[in-house]
What we know:
Distance between the termini: 28 Å
CATH architecture of the domain at 9-143 and 167-194 and 245-256: 3-Layer(aba) Sandwich
Strand content: 15-25%
Helix content: 40-55%
Low-confidence stretches: none
Amino acid sequence: MTYAFTHTDRARQRLEVLAEVYSASTSLFLRECLGETPSLVVDLGCGPGCTTHLLANTLQAKQVIGLDLSPSFIAFAQKTAAPHISFACHDITVVPFPSGPANLLYCRFLLTHLQLPQSIIERWATQLQPGGFLFIEETEWIHTQHKLLAQYLEIVAAMLAHQANNLYIGPSLEALTQSKSLQIHRNRVQAVKVTTAQAAMMFWMNIQSWKHLPFIQQHYSPDLINSIEEDLRVLTQVAERDDEIEWGIRQLALVRI
Length: 257
């Protein structure tokens, strides 16, 4: 499993900002799609544990376990563990999971980084109890007419495509989740407005994680990347406008049959 955005402290900080930005839309998705309190929830690709705590707080599950491939992320997350919240270092493309069969598997912005996502989803289905749920949130689209933000997104999309990944995997999810063992319970696109400063902060932190990757160095001049990085830094300090960039989040709830 290759993660383009790395596992550095800066990458962790970006994930913390991202968690804050999307906490409201994710909480609403969870509450609307799950009627009963689950016994065991597994957060796939939990990073530093922000989504794991969101799942625990929103669902009041008896046990929530976060899984991630990064030892540094897991070490950080374990500092926030509680009797009903735990973390383990594990490649989420490999089954079985150390947690055992779950009532709910959850992932956000994870499949966009994985190759052969359909086969991975099939594997995940085997880690659900009968009647258990798989909740997925991925990017459907990002609308912006802000030149700098659009330029950044074009570079990220190209970088992920080079790795056989897809920044905008949302439109493909329904086809990717066609399975004899999974049935669609809820399928929608949720629009999420993000302030220009928030988007710039996520992008500025992110570019520091991948600007030294070979693909970037081979296809973009250092002057261009450094200029984008600096312009993003400046943009983090602008007024909190919320009319310049908007995400469309594909929210897909699947149930094991």
